[in-house]
Every structure is written in C-alpha cells, then in structure tokens.
Amino acid sequence: MTTTPEGNATGSRVALVTGASGGIGRAVAERLAADGQSVVLLYGGGTRRAAEALAAVEKAAAGAGGGGRALALAADIADETEMATAFDRVERELGGIDVVVNTAGVMVLAPVAELDLADLDRMHRVNIRGTFVVSQLAARRLRAGGALVNFSTSVTRLQQPGYAAYAASKGAVEAMTLILARELRGRDVTVNTVAPGPTATPLFLDGKPQELVDHIAGLNPMQRLGTPADIADSVSFLAGPHGRWTNGQTLYVNGGAA
Known about the structure:
Number of strands: 7
CATH topology: Rossmann fold
Largest sheet: 7 strands, parallel
Shape: globular
Distance between the termini: 35 Å
Helix content: 40-55%
CATH class: Alpha Beta
CATH superfamily: NAD(P)-binding Rossmann-like Domain
Strand order of the largest sheet: 3-2-1-4-5-6-7
Radius of gyration: 17 Å
Order of helices and strands: EHEHEHEHEHEHHHE
C-alpha cells in the first residue's frame, strides 16, 4: 500500500536522493520523478552539475504529468548537523519524506600494500559514516510506507585485486543496512541495499583504458556494462508500491556477473 504524504500539496511521495548530481544518483532522481514522486536532489559539491541534474529531474517530472516537485540541496552526508538541516527543510517544504536513496560514495583503488591511509579515511567517512548518518535520520523520519535504499557494490563478492578498501567500506554498508531493516520492525518501512556491478559512470570509467573497459564488459554474460538507467530501474522497484515485500535484502544488479 502506498502511503500518501500528509501536507504535501502535490500529493506525491517525497524522495531524497544523495549523490544526485552523479551518474547513478542523477539517473535515480530522474526515474523517481518520472514515477511521479517529488524528488530532492542532495549533492556535496559542483553546483553546475547539480543545476543540470535539477533541470533534468524537472523535465522528467513534467513528463509524468507535473505532479511532483524538484528541489536541490547542498549538504555533506557525513555531517549530521548539515543532514538534519536538509531533512528539516524537506519536511518543511514538502510535508515529509517517504523515500531515501543514498547513492553518494567515494571509490579509490589500490592494492592494500600501497593504499594511502588518507584515502582509506576518506572512503570511511563518506561510504560508512555518511551512510550511517543518512540511515539514522531515515530511521527516525521516514513515514509509514517508506523505503530506504543504500548502495553497496557487487565487488564485495568478486575479490578483485585493488578493491579491498572500497569493498570493505561497502561491506560495512550492507551490514548496517540489513540490521536496520530488522530494527525497524513494525514501522512499515523497507530497508534494502542495491549492489551494482560495473556501470558506465564517470566514477567507474575514469582512468581506465578502453581495452580494460571492454575486457570488464566482456566478463558479463550480458556482454556489456550496466547503465545508470539499469540501476535506477531497481531503485524504482524498491521505492515504489511493488517493492513492499522486499525488505532486508542486498539486491545484486549486475547482469549476472559472478
């Protein structure tokens, strides 16, 4: 059953998407807007990209009949004060929050023996602490019928050299997310993790020669990389009325990669 937000003049569900100026985050925000939800795009920096994403989301909302609103906010997901302020503003302007999708993340690749510990700390702050801060606020604020979707990675079970620190940070995301699903017993709020495989985003493609990209794509039984739209389809399911019986799960969205 879809819960209608109280106090929201549009009558649509309200979704907050972190990392919404990036590849997957922007695709998710556009898809939820196309689904008829009001969407808040939360970004950490890069006002030009955020403005472009906001325009795209507004276009998607208009294509869905103009029922939902779009709003862009800047905040550091690992800063509990900034995030609480962002949640406060969304509740004040849109009446409440029904969906939180936490796509924001940092990936730095290096073998364990060579990784700069400053990079480890950065991934810990964004991927682990940031996810915890957002999840804590979602646990306190999501309305009945709501959904929290955090992001992991299929690399957690692929054991690829160079990915140890990143995979470890995302393994922590899976653990906290699946436990939170059990802690919210009786709240009618679903909590799940999406774990994409290799996806054609700037974060994935940056610094990789085309031969390596082609090789990685060829390892997949579908013979291609994923697209941000592929991942957004899965989030749309979890955030919408047809995903209410999927709870406390990690959904591997990777085209069948082992």
